[in-house]
Amino acid sequence: MKSKLFLPQVLLLVIAIVSSLNSYSKSSLSIYSTIDSLVPATTGYKQKLAIKFSVDSIFVEENNNYIEEKFTAELSDIEADYGRTGNNKKTFPQLIRAMKARKIFRDSKNKRRLFSDLAKVSARLKLYPLAMQSFYQSNQLNDDIQSQNYSIDTANIKNDDDKSPDSEPTTVSNILESFEDNKSAFGYALIIHVKQPISGNRKAFTGFDNVGHMFITLIKYNDDNSYVSRSFGFYPDKNSTFSATPIHPSSPAVFKDDALHNWDETIGKFISKKRFEKIIRLLNKYEHKTYHLNQSNCTDFGLNIANIIGINIFDTRGKWPLGKGNNPANAGQSILEKKITNTDTENKDDLFIYNSKNLEKY
């Protein structure tokens, strides 16, 4: 990956923050700087929202220790409040304000902590490009600050505990057209999401047909600071009541846009252009596949993608009446229990893994 935006430095995040995060309509957005457009996440394509702030020096050198102590206390308060409320909408602007107020990061632990918190809250708000870039910055050791152009789509911000709207059908050609933007890319990322039937449990289903869901988010970061992000999953296109059930496990298949789908566990990784292209080829093959509850379901699709990018998730199979196979309950629980490997480095620290509604303590 080229390091155009992912410099080994603390990223001065610049984000247009909404004045009221309780509304999703464009008319309710109050932006701190003029921007060209706000594109809903479901369209997959984001125009450049780059606003440049210069780095200044507010504090004199001799106050650095006091500044870090104050920053540590401030961050601890934000994390404690998040632990009590789980309110992503409230925590997100708090973290951004803390970020913009800190021009000096001499404590690499605090720097890592702040970016890690921002990555997790952004993921819960389904701001996946920001989540992965923040995760990358949390692992950088150089504490110098450099002014950056940074783009992020603030439309359709919603709290994770809100009910997911129904995912709308899409097509492979529609997904691929999003990435054919005639722009050169400096990086790619992929995130695997799992929604279990019962969070934190390996029970493969609840009720009549609640088997959970596994889906992916594919991200392309462009050289001009724009990005393309599409979230989608493999579904049965049910043509009868019992289609894609243990009674009749097969069904026609369809892809659906999962940009606003909730999840319990997630695991992400930066990938090469070669792997990105392999994923594109696999999508073309899946366009003609039949859905089968036992052998070709949403989890099988997600695990095939995981295999391409060098992530192994173990113990993903389970049983249900009249059938067995890979399923979201077991796959999600294995991510929760970290029964995973990064085949490239054997180091889980290179993976963005998040499955908690609390911010971990450092």
Structural features, described:
This protein is α+β, with helices and mostly antiparallel strands and 362 residues long. It folds into 2 domains: 10-146, no CATH class; 168-354, no CATH class. It has 8 helices and 16 strands. The chain has helices spanning 64-85, 88-101, 108-124, 128-138, 172-179, 273-286, 298-308, 328-336, and strands spanning 10-11, 45-46, 145-146, 168-170, 185-195, 213-222, 227-236, 250-251, 253-257, 265-271, 291-292, 311-313, 317-320, 323-326, 340-342, 352-354. The strands form 5 sheets. Strands 2, 4, 5, 6, 7, 9, 10 and 16 form an 8-stranded antiparallel β-sheet that branches. A two-stranded parallel ribbon has the order 1-3. A hairpin with a 2-residue loop joins strand 13 and strand 14 (323-326). Helix 1 (64-85) packs antiparallel against helix 2, helix 2 runs antiparallel to helix 3 and helix 3 runs antiparallel to helix 4 (128-138). The chain is globular and about 65 Å long. The model is unreliable at 2-62 and 142-156 (pLDDT under 50).
